[in-house]
Amino acid sequence: MTAADNYLMPIAPRPDVVFVRGEGAWLYDSKGRRYLDWVQGWAVNCLGHAPAAVAQALAIQAQTLINPSPAFYNQQALDLAEMLVRNSCFDHVFFASSGAEANEGAIKLARRWGQLHRQGAHEIVTFVDGFHGRTLATMSASGKPGWDTLFAPQVPGFPKAMLNDIDSVAKLIGPATVAVMLEPVQGEAGVRLASPKFVRGLRRLCDDHGLLLVFDEVQTGCGRTGTLFAYEQLGVEPDIMTLGKGIGGGVPLSALLAKRAASCFAHGDQGGTYCGNPLVCAAGLAVMRTLTEEGFLDQCRTNAATLAAALRDVSAEFGLGEVRGMGMLLALELGADTAAAVVTEARQRGLLLNAPRPHCLRFMPALNTTAAEIRQGIALLRQSLAGRDSVI
Ligand SMILES: *Cc1c(COP(=O)(O)O)cnc(C)c1O
User: Fold this and answer.
1) Distance from the CA of 188 to the CA of which of 134, 243, 279, 323 falls in 20 to 30 A?
2) Cα–Cα distance list, 33 to 189, 336, 376 (Å)
3) Same domain for 331 and 185?
4) Which phi and psi angles does 330 have, rounded to 5°?
């Protein structure tokens, strides 16, 4: 299954494994081997693999109505939008299919708002090491090293500040500025947390200058950080928020949410053939109903604390670095560029891990993973770290 003997574009190095089935925390390959999955489709499968609630919702909806077109209402989109509004500080929702597409929508909404309310201001302050997606505009908004030249020229209008450095943001604000956009936790950068103090400072700065505060909660939203949305733990309300990943429980669904004052699209400004189709919205409803069940997020927070404590023990035992994160979005610093080797070793032992940076591992289990699965994963992680040491 190397790049030479299949027909997929070689966009990433992939291990010689073909996955055929998933169930909860577990993935099974074509040879019948099973793996405890702490990648979960890149924090996408918030309820694990093939969760019954999502599978049933999809099966029923697939036999009822898949896509009447975004030019017509459908009940699932109406219900999901209502559920998101009732459980957040926002008033209006636009559905899309990927995180990047939701962020494109947020960028357009901010620019539209700038045309209407700030004499055409259009610049959006974003952050070094930030990640917002892989379309041209969202790549330009991202601060990933090398992306400024990868598909040059970039889309202009995204000056970069430093996370947790309020002066670096203030310095970039001028007459052309319309918004500040950030991830509450920079996931792809290695789980770097925006401090509550910094975020409150951003809110104040935006209020003082009449700017929009935009949160990209594609990774942090939908329970990943222990609350439904990360902003709830930071003591601020953004004007605009995007969701992706977890909201669909594995199927392509994302959302752009805005407060009434920022919700300024006119007819024809925004759209998309698949936007808000009832098939994916039925999955989103199943996810949101599960996440908002009494006790679900309490249990998730308890298990996340167990995982974080176990990772700290592992770090102490092996002389590794910091454990950081929120809820079920955690990282372990390794202190050296050994992450790729640990990921390979772990996979061979039946544990799937992700290394967002050469020196750190990221953990994003299903939100409903059990304490027993966490123990199994930690045992496999210990073996992987020890096994790698014994090889050297
Ligand atoms: C994954 C991610 C995106 C991009 O989402 P896609 O569905 O891959 O387009 C955007 N922002 C953040 C914070 C992400 O983690």
Assistant:
1) 279
2) 31, 30, 16
3) no
4) -130, 155
Give the predicted TM-score (pTM) of the model: 0.97
Task: Determine contact, residues 192/185, Cβ cutoff 8 Å.
Answer: yes
Residues 99 and 120 both lie in one domain: yes
Q: Are residues 25 and 119 in the same domain?
A: no
In terms of domains, do 268 and 347 share one?
A: no
What is the rounded distance in angstroms from the CA atom of residue 342 to the CA atom of residue 384? 6
The answer on 343 and 280 residing in a single domain is no
CATH of residue 324's domain is: 3.90.1150.10
Q: What is the pLDDT of residue 112?
A: 98
pLDDT band (50, 70, 90) for residue 5: confident
pLDDT single digits (tens) 334-362: 999 999 999 999 999 999 999 999 999 99
Q: How confident is the model at residue 392 (pLDDT cuts 50, 70, 90)?
A: very low
Reply yes or no on whether the pLDDT at 391 is more than 50.
no
Final residue before a domain boundary, out of 291, 318, 353: 291
With the most atoms of ligand 1 within 8 angstroms of its CB, the residue from 135, 218, 242, 364 to mutate is 218
In angstroms, the CA 163 to CA 193 distance is 9
Ligand 1 pocket: which of 131, 185, 186 to mutate (most atoms within 8 A of CB): 131
309 and 182, same structural domain? no
Q: Are 246 and 43 in contact (CB under 8 A)?
A: yes
Q: Can you tell me the mean pLDDT for 178-201?
A: 97
